[in-house]
Design brief:
Strand content: 25-35%
Number of helices: 3
Distance between the termini: 65 Å
Order of helices and strands: HHHEEEEEEE
Structural class: alpha+beta
Strand order of the largest sheet: 4-3-6-7
Radius of gyration: 26 Å
């Protein structure tokens, strides 16, 4: 059997170094594939974020806030009688945590202080529900984290 000399040790160290660099180039980026921004217009929305902060502060001062519950028809959102929505227009946004292709954004008319997001448009998973409305031209926003089963 041959003895290892310093030349062999140098070649082994160089080979290990090359394998390490190949690992960093080929394998490491695979874990970074789903690092997309939540929104395509992130920077524009960031500039408008003060409006969102104000709307959330307005909603935090309410005695009662809209509530949601899962029903056989879907996700039912109920507004308290104390909230008088301007023009009965409510906007909701369902942000899907894992896949932005499943996001739902819609403005609709509020009837009898409630509306239902149909079960067929909501797939299983984690969502952030954002409810936006105005009352006396004052904006309000409430966010909920939802796990839809």
């Amino acid at each position: 059997m041959k003895k290892l000399n310093w030349g062999h040790g140098l070649m082994i160290a160089l080979g290990c170094f090359i394998l390490f660099i190949l690992f960093l180039i080929l394998v490491f980026p695979i874990g970074k594939q789903n690092a997309d921004m939540i929104s395509d217009n992130y920077y524009e929305e960031e500039l408008k974020y003060q409006d969102v902060i104000d709307a959330k502060e307005n909603a935090a001062q309410l005695k009662e806030v809209p509530a949601y519950k899962a029903t056989a028809e879907g996700m039912e959102i109920t507004f308290p009688q104390s909230i008088k929505v301007d023009n009965n227009k409510v906007e909701f946004i369902l942000f899907r945590t894992e896949d932005s292709n499943l996001d739902i954004k819609k403005e609709l008319n509020l009837e009898n202080h409630k509306f239902v997001i149909p079960k067929k448009v909501v797939s299983l998973g984690s969502y952030t529900l954002k409810l936006k409305w105005t009352e006396n031209k004052k904006p309000y926003q409430v966010d909920y984290d939802i796990l839809w089963n």
